[in-house]
TrEMBL record, chains A, B:
Name this polypeptide is given: TetR/AcrR family transcriptional regulator
Keyword Mitochondrion belongs to the record: no
Sorted UniProt keywords: DNA-binding, Transcription, Transcription regulation
Keyword DNA-binding: yes
Source taxonomy: Bacteria, Pseudomonadati, Pseudomonadota, Alphaproteobacteria, Hyphomicrobiales
PROSITE patterns noted in UniProt: HTH_TETR_2 (PS50977)
Region of interest (Disordered), residue spans: 1-22
């Protein structure tokens, strides 16, 4: 390691970029494992086997199991954002953005971008009896998602695209409820209930639309 | 075992009743473990330790782990039914029955009748990547619950207590959605969201009420 120094930037950059690529490859596998079997099923040994990486390298990249779990949560949320980004960028009005967010959720689950469907809904239940940093991170990410929904709906209301009388907090809650049920339905193989969640979500938005 | 025969009914009855009491005691512990840590966390070894029963006895009473998981699912649903039974029996109209079903769900979770909240919502996610008899049983029980909600709402509509235009399938879906989100909120310690689910459920029923 003695050749790494401030004066040796190109080498360090290359090294960092190799490290980022390794991290990304490991996190892809971590997300798939945790999506299907939960964050507790994400052991360093299993991950090493599936990603084809030495256990010691995973420990160097991520530290302990809990740090790995937290990194996996953050990675999955980046994945979800990246999935929705093109359609969100193409949306021309605030209401259009809301539709894209809602449609994007169903598409993400249905296309099995992760084997276990919606990661956040799936793993939140897992931590019901496990207070600590992982549960705190999941709670924080859930609140952030709710805030994004409330803000997007408020922007649509302020733009006159949805009725001023609509309670955006409640509407956000309802849309997220349908996703929570849809995710369990998907988990358990109930396709009809998943599709009902999607069509009721679309209808709620149609009803809220002004004009 | 040679003393057990058709001609020896009192002894057999006593024996069976002792067996039932052991089963019940073990299942109480099984429900608590699975509610908090999932049905996969329900190992025969751990259960033996917590219930203070020999592993071999649990194997005699329940067979293998999968049979124990199925027995635990059925036990929990009996527990939920017993919890709601007095209020349901006291309900004087079909609409009143619906209210009792909805209020009873929130009360069951809030009073921590099981440490992990709503068992069905909690463990369904756990089996998202595990097809088989346990997932099938969970799916079947979820469908049965939905049917009970639809039938109770239809009875209230037929009695003229809710508006005839109400789509009872959709209303049942919505009420169950709020529970799905409330259960994740409860799991993760988000009390405000849990209470929002309860008040939105009550409001939905108020809006559906005829007259």
């Amino acid at each position: 390691m003695s050749d790494v120094s401030e004066h040796d930037a190109p080498t360090e950059d290359r090294r960092r970029s190799r490290g980022d690529a390794s991290r990304a490859r490991v996190l892809e596998h971590a997300a798939a494992i945790a999506s299907a079997d939960g964050l507790e099923g994400l052991t360093i040994g299993r991950l090493a086997g599936e990603a084809g990486v030495a256990k010691s390298n995973i420990q160097v990249l991520f530290g302990d199991k809990q740090s790995l779990q937290l990194a996996t949560i953050d990675w999955v949320l980046q994945l979800v954002e990246a999935f929705n980004a093109p359609a969100l960028a193409a949306a021309t009005t605030p209401f259009e953005r809301v539709r894209v967010m809602v449609d994007g959720w169903f598409a993400f689950v249905e296309r099995r971008m992760l084997p276990g469907g919606c990661f956040m809904n799936g793993v939140s239940s897992e931590f019901r009896a496990r207070p600590g940093p992982v549960r705190d991170r999941l709670a924080e990410r859930r609140r952030a998602k709710r805030r994004r929904y409330v803000e997007a709906l408020a922007a649509a209301r302020d733009a006159g695209e949805i009725w001023p009388a609509i309670d955006v907090e409640n509407l956000a809650f309802e849309l997220l409820s349908y996703q929570a049920l849809a995710n369990v339905a998907f988990a358990i193989g109930d396709e009809a209930e998943f599709q009902r969640a999607r069509s009721i979500s679309a209808r709620r938005l149609d009803e809220a639309k002004a004009g």
